[in-house]
């Protein structure tokens, strides 16, 4: 039992992150998303400013139903909390979408290899 000596912490999280970063499709999605976030800040008036929200849909749209977000009135602390929540929610949405793309890519690859065998 070579694995018994070192405990595995959060094995499901590791599997999830492996799906999100394991294939070229998932990594390409994350790269395009990472490139779209600075575009939103640098060119806020352009058509591409909402690209990061469109790339993380449908999960990113759930965050719009919550009672706080960027632009919430209530002082500095509420603004910081709302911005941090929006950033974390965007990251979670992107990782879920990348994991779905990774799982689909694995499924297609496994079906192709099963057909050839």
Principal-axis shape: globular
Mean pLDDT: 83
Profile the largest sheet.
Answer: none
Give the helix tally.
5
Class of secondary structure makeup: mainly alpha
What does this structure look like?
The chain is mostly helical and about 120 residues long. The chain is built from 5 helices and no strands. α1 (about 10-20) packs across α5 and α2 runs antiparallel to α5 (about 75-115). It is globular and about 60 Å long. The two termini are about 35 Å apart. The relative contact order is 0.15.
Structural topology:
Layout: H1 11-21, H2 24-42, H3 51-55, H4 59-62, H5 76-116
Short note summarizing the structure:
This protein is an all-alpha fold. It is built from five helices and no strands.
Task: Considering the chains and any ligands shown, give keywords for the structure.
117 residues, mainly alpha, 5 helices, 68% helix, globular
């Amino acid at each position: 039992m070579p694995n018994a000596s070192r405990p595995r912490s959060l094995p499901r999280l590791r599997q999830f992150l492996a799906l999100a970063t394991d294939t070229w499709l998932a990594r390409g999605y994350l790269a395009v998303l990472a490139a779209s976030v600075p575009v939103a800040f640098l060119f806020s008036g352009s058509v591409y400013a909402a690209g990061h929200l469109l790339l993380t849909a449908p999960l990113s749209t759930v965050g719009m139903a919550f009672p706080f977000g960027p632009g919430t009135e209530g002082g500095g602390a509420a603004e910081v909390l709302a911005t941090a929540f929006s950033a974390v929610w965007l990251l979670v949405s992107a990782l879920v979408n990348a994991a779905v793309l990774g799982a689909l890519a694995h499924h297609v690859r496994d079906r192709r290899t099963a057909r050839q065998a």
